[in-house]
Each structure stands twice: as structure tokens, then as C-alpha cells.
Amino acid sequence: MKTWSTHSGYQLLRILGGRSNVFLLSNGRADILIDTSPKFMWPGLRNRLNRKGICHIDYLILTHSHFDHANNARQIMELYGAKVIVHKAEADLLSSGKMLIPEGSNAFTRMIVRFFGPMFSSIIACEPCEPDLLVADRLDLQDFGFNAYILHTPGHSPGSLSVIIDDEIALVGDAMVGVFPWSVYPPFLEDHKQLIESWGKLLATGCSWFIPSHGSANSRMLVEKCFARIIKRTNQ
What is the pTM of this model? Predict the structure, then answer.
């Protein structure tokens, strides 16, 4: 389980990896879980939480409502007492258990969505879960005991959120991927323009590391290079 520490002494633990990353943020008094993984990973997630001695989770932040992030939200809420936080644009999707299939960002992923999207959407419905707190543009976590905040970073989905911790680490959900050494551009998204604007917002935080839900952490240098390359291509 990979761990990061910030200058305020917060511990960020990647408590589950593989298909989707799940993170646990702790200040020694409160615990925040970020995302919940797809349903088939629930036994592994629960086992990891139990091994860490986690009996109560104060808040669950969902970076968005897609199945591989929100599918176990109801279990986390019911078993660990977590209050669920999601962007207001995706609250109804979470409450109903429905999921919108994002568009592909390249020829291959567009083909996947075109041929398998309708079938996929019926398979990956989530258990309905009522959120407790809704985010608009930003939600400060100072009252929760953390020098951190939640930032609206749409593009991959309308209500995508990122968590900015100590202005050092950004948990970016699917706004980026950490799979390729040359690019952080996600294979699926709703709005390219919004995504690039969100990258600009994330870089403006001053964070050194941008940790996605799929793959490994991205350095600031890599994100800046990808951002500059896309801006240059857009302006040509």
C-alpha cells in the first residue's frame, strides 16, 4: 500500500490499487475515503480497511459517479457511517444508481463506446446511494480538520472532482491517467475543452503530484508538458 505524507503531517494511503485506486486520507483524528472501486473489488477493499483497523470513516468523497468509483458507496455509508460527498451535477445519478457512458477520446475508445456502450450501461448500474453533501465549484475541508479542498474539475464527466491536499498533492480522479509515460490524457471523456480548463485549474494549485484513479502518480513536469502540448496544438 503506497503512502504519501504532506508537510502538515497528513497520511495519504492508496488502500487499494489495480483496476481502480482508492485512497484513505487521515490526520490522526478523522479519516476521509476517496472513491470506492467497482463492485467486484469490494471484498478486497473491506479487507484492507479492516486490516488497517478502520471502523469508522468520516467522509467519502466520490470523484465522480461512474461505476468504478462509486459502486461501493452505499456499503461504505452503511458499514462505516461515512457521509457521502459528490458534485451536484451527479447527485441524481448517484441517487438513482444510473451511469452515463462517456465518449471515447480516440478512435479505439470511440469504437468501444459505439458498439458496447448501450450494453455496458445496463451492466454497470450502481446501488442507489443518497449523498449528504453536494459540491458546486469548491468545498473547503478546513472544518473537517484538513488543510485541503475539493475542486470541480469537469471534462471526464460533468461533475468530476479533485481533492487538493496541502497544495502538494492532487487526487484527480479520471481528469488524468497515470498509465503512459508520455501522456496523462484520459481515454474517455465528455468535454475536451472543459478537461483542458480543469488541467489549468489543477496546475494553478501549485501541486507537485497529480495522482489519478487509474495508474501511478504523475509529476508536475509531465502534466505541464502535456498541457503545453495540447494548448499549442489547439492554437495552431
Answer: 0.92
